[in-house]
Structures
1.
Amino acid sequence: MVIILFIIGWEVACQTFEIPTWLLPPPSDIVDEALTGWNQYSKHISSTVQLAIIGFLVGSSVGIVVAISLHLIPFMREAFYPVLIISQNIPVIVSAPLLIIWFGFGMLPKVIIITLVCFFPITIAALDGFRQTNRDWLHYMQMAGASKLQIFRKLEWPHALPAVFSGLKISATYSVMGAVISEWLGANKGIGVYMTLASSSFRTDRVFVAIFLVIILSLLFFGLIVYIEKKLVRWKPIEEGNAHESFSH
Amino acid sequence: MSHLVIKQINKSFGNHAVLKNLSLTVNDGEFVSILGPSGSGKSTLFRLIGGISLPDNGDIYLDEVKINGRRGSISYMPQSPALLPWRSILKNVVLGAELHGPYDKKIALQMIERAGLKGYENHYPYELSGGMQQRVSFIRALLSPQKFMCLDEPFSALDEFTRLDMQKWLMDVWSEYRRSILFVTHNIEEAIFLSDRIIILSERPATVKHEFVIPFPRPRHEGLLLTEEFLHFKKKVYEKMQK
């Protein structure tokens, strides 16, 4: 509703104040370009989607592996936690050109960039999930004689799964961003390239098309993760208050 | 065969002595209750038997084998049911067994039926009432391979009606399987009703203050709770606890 009002306001403002289209195109122009320019940008979409998916898969695997090793190997946590934080303090815009210098213009530096933006939310979410395991359950497992690995596999991992998924949702949207950023820095295809070309030729309508494409892709990725979560996490995390109501009927 | 001997155990945290020269035995097939005020170190005692922490000195033997610091020697029923919410009832029931090897699904299903939970095998814990969850928790302990059971105030969170039901059910199942049980409670009536023997702990630092052998024959019925003898016995126990 808010979005619709916003778009109407935008359209009306553009018409009444006669804003030049290179400065701010009205939504109708953007939609027009989105429809007629399909051939222009379709090849860019598939390239970006491919890149984002690969980057996301690599990034989330790295994120989960890092979280598990930090959790299970005692000294790793103290040793590497600061490194993790630092890795997030280096702006991508700075590290990306470096990566291109080191690894060239191929797939590898782009995947590394996406991995860098993707793994962090997952690692942090998973670590928190592992650590917040219910004390009573942990106590039972210890008393019952579960080994450290059994405690992890049968208790901490399933317990952390919802947390891991919230990390994955954040990373899924980041991965599209990361893909576009990595394309800015050197690629011959992709939404990032399309965006750069459009802005350098003052085709502001196309810049907006690109923005909306990024938004739509992010939402799709997000929705996909939510769908997978619903399939995998069948149990309800305990929400106080309705735990027993479901029993009475 | 399972027979627990605790010899002269001391445990303190910093300057706080929690257990002092505590000795007790549970014979094979015996149901022994530990009665003590809250915070008397009952949980600490269980942590020692469970091998999660080590006594400062003294030894714990199970079937003549020293089990100081050795985890998984006993099967355990905690105060809260501690069922894993992502596991179905069946999967929860076999958890204790699963930790030590393959389990027998058929026996698990029989036990679920025995607990009056037939039809709930594939339900999840949040769909069960508190009493039902405790029954699941008890079966889980019973199906664990260890023959010695430790029950840590398992009924303290239940209402009076459910509690009596659970006590009767527990006695039923126990008389059939005859495991050795060490049962912690702060409810005198419950201790007398269920046990062969009661051990009364003092306040911190906990040591054995008194021991009662329960004279009432089994099987016991709830009518026993209101007999003159029972009330008289309860009074005796109560007086010992006060001193």
2.
Amino acid sequence: MRIYNGFLFPLPNIVLAYWQERTSNCANATIRYTPSLATNRTMSEATTKRVLLVDDEPNIIVALEFLMKQQGYQVDTAYNGQDALQKMEAHIPNVVVLDVMMQGMDGFEVAQQIRRNPALEDTRIVFLTAKGTKEDRMEGYTKGGEVYLTKPFDNDELVSVIGDLMEFG
Amino acid sequence: MSGFLVWAYCLPLPTLAEGGLISSEFIERGLWGISALKPYALFGLEDPNHVSHGAFWSLLINTLVYVGVSLNSKQNALEIRQADLFVDFYKYRDGSNTYEVVKRQAKVSDIQTLLTRFLGQRKSQAILKVYERRYNTDLSKIHIANEDLIKIAETYLAGAIGAASTKILLHSIVKEDPISLEEMFNILEQTQEIMQYSRKLEQKSKELEATTQQLQAVNEQLKELDQLKADFINTVTHELRTPITSIKALAKIVFDNPELPQEEQARYLSIIVNESERISRLVSQVLDLEKIQSLKDQWEMEPMNLKGLVEEAYSNFKPLMDEHQITHKCTIEPGTYQVYGARDRLMQALVNLIGNAIKFCNQENGQVSLLLKIKNQDAIIQVADNGVGISKENQSLIFEKFAQVTDSQMGKPKGSGLGLSITSEIMERHNGTVSLESKLGHGATFSMHIPLLDSSSQNDPD
């Protein structure tokens, strides 16, 4: 079950997913959805979860980074859309936390690019933005976001939402 | 004429009869046996003097007939004139306008052609159908048009082309008395009036069109302004939410994690303080901008010297620049820098520029320089830095509200993005401008141009 424990560094998620699918019969799937195991997950198990934080405000990144690291996730950061797409090429994240209003490529556009990329099929998108109108939310969901949170956010809510996405995809 | 007849009947005729030339029977018994018509005692009035009797009756009849005829004919002429002058035929359609034209005659086909030409095929057919129904006739069987048909044609044509023109047209196909000179003049006058009227109408409609266009333009402008305002509010809200987000999240982190190392706590708290300052800065700048834009805020404009202003601003910033190890200098060319302005506002504009220069100058080897000079009747304050500069495409954007040129690696620079728009608003209020000269990688120079108060008393150092 902990097939990646022997490696010096965690395998990229897509390789793991492929391996898990190949290696066998729904053992991993049950683990994934068994609450008792999920709550008892070890630190090393959690390190496989990777989150990419995208925001053009460094101070918001500081806060997000602290919260995500506290949960034991691997954290990547990016300050704009282009940067975010590059970081995702290097490491495929389980969850991307995306600001919307950014100079150059905005968050919606980044989300579209992610959805067009088959390699990022399993990556879940959380929009975290000051744009809070109904229309903005609708656009967020149509552009491929799973969750739409508005700024200022609640730390606990953000952590639990991302936790759920990590757990159940 | 009638008087003559009466006279002839009363005098020469009985004389002839008495002479035996014609039968004298009517003298005794009256004409056709009517006693009232006895030549020597007309209507029973007998006079022994036949001459005076004849003269009396002939004069009386003559006068009566004359009065009668003249009255009758006068009324006719009046009606004709009235009919000529009417333009709005609906007023006269009720039939009160029944001037007699006894001799009018026209072919039905001619009238049909006329109606078709001026009213169109469909309308003329409709009119003729209405006529047929009303008078219960079949026009295809009648060759000569009667009075009613002519009148109807006249009424409809008058509505379309004016009464005078109608009259001419109908005269051309109706065999009638020729038009009198007076009528001709009336017709000409009326045509002239109609032409003037239509010219006026044309002018009016052109004016209306122009007004409509103006209104549309104004409407567009208002819409644009409204959109700008909405955008502004959106941006302000966004700009406020951003620091609040960091503050809230970090405050919660510090609160939830009392076991955090001291340095880490201090780091988060300092971010909280900075972001709070950012909010209050933003709020006061938005208020400033609002104050500058609204005319309610009466500025205290007065003659003032820019030299003192520049020196004061420079000396205020000196300690800060020394602290950041920025090389700085201030050059004031000789001259009298008397301008008409609001001192506090000009100071605000200048402080914004110097603040930007300090913020954006080269990190390691910063240089900021101030220059005050005169050029073309304008006082010019230049603030130059040696930072990365601003690219051509961003130069036009930079004076927009909240526009900031973002460093792709470092995220946004600190600031609200309102400073330069405040500066340019202030300059606008002083009939001045703020301009930018910059090349990417070679720093930026901002210049405030302020018109000098009295150009004649200035000695241009150039």
